[in-house]
């Protein structure tokens, strides 16, 4: 997992270029008061704009077989060791995945969260940084 540190300007350093909102702890956890005041991430925008294929590319996923939009291969969540593994199944048109061994499942954000072992909020910020895009913060609740 890549560590993200904040410089004095509030920008992250390291491999991820995500910008955290002012006052947020770099790991997204902070104190209880900080967590209550954190701005929300617009997850619907991320699910719409970041594709499963982009996440798979970041994970260097290599499908061992495919049929149309359905891919099969080793699971990036639990780390299949067999080169010909087909336990991990991804439907690109639906943006959903499922592992038949560890039973991890979900959309592209949940996949990134599971692989990086981060809460969804932190995973969303991390993923935006890895893709070099701004985090879609919710302006108003």
UniProtKB/TrEMBL annotation:
Start and end residues of each Zinc finger CHC2-type domain: 64-136
InterPro entries: DNA_primase_Znf_CHC2, Znf_CHC2
Feature: compositional bias, Basic and acidic residues: 1-11
Pfam families found in the cross-reference section: Zn_ribbon_DnaG
GO molecular function, one term: zinc ion binding
Location of the region described as Disordered in the Swiss-Prot/TrEMBL record: 1-38
GO biological process: DNA replication
Designated name of the protein: Zinc finger CHC2-type domain-containing protein
Organism: marine sediment metagenome
Taxonomic path: unclassified sequences, metagenomes, ecological metagenomes
